[in-house]
Amino acid sequence: MARVILALVVILGLAVLITWLAIKPKKLDYTIEDASVHYYNLHNNHLNGSFDFLIRAHNPNGKLSINYDSIEVLLAYDDQTIAFNTLEPFHQPHKNVTRLRANLVAQDIALSQGAARDMRLDKASGEVELYVKFKARIKFKVGVFKLRHQTLKVSCSPVLHFSNSSTFERTYCHTNH
Fold it and tell me: How far apart are CA 119 and CA 124, in angstroms?
C-alpha cells in the first residue's frame, strides 16, 4: 500500500513539473507610463484634486492569459489614502500589453495635521511624492483550463512629482501575487 501511495505522489509530482515546464510562467509586469494632476487644492487640511494615471500591464507569458475580474486602485501620500477608484474588468491575452486609464479623485479628503503639513512643505519644494497601489482578483487561463482566483497586489512608488519639469519618468511597479 505504501508503494502505491508513493508511486501516485511521484506521478503527480512529475505531472506538475512537466506542466510547469511546458507553460514556463513568467512574472507579470506593471508600470505607470504617465501621470498628471488637475484642480489640486489643499486648504484647512482638506485635499481636493483629480489624478490621472496611465497604467501599462504586460503579460509576457506565451501560454497564460489572464482574466481581471475586479481591480481597485488607490492613491496614497505618507501612508494615507487620498483617492480610490475601481477599473472595469478585462481579459488580457498571452504576450499582450494592455494600457489602463485610472482617474482618481480626492474630494474634500481630510488629511492628518502632520500629513497636511508635510504635503504643504513638499509642494513648496516642488516634490510631492504620491504612491499608486492596486489590488485585483485575477484568474489565469491555460488553453481551456481556468485556474482558481488569486489576489494580485501591485505597488508603484513614487509615481507623481509636483515639480517644475513637465516630463514624466516611467515608474516601475512591484508585484506580489
Answer: 8
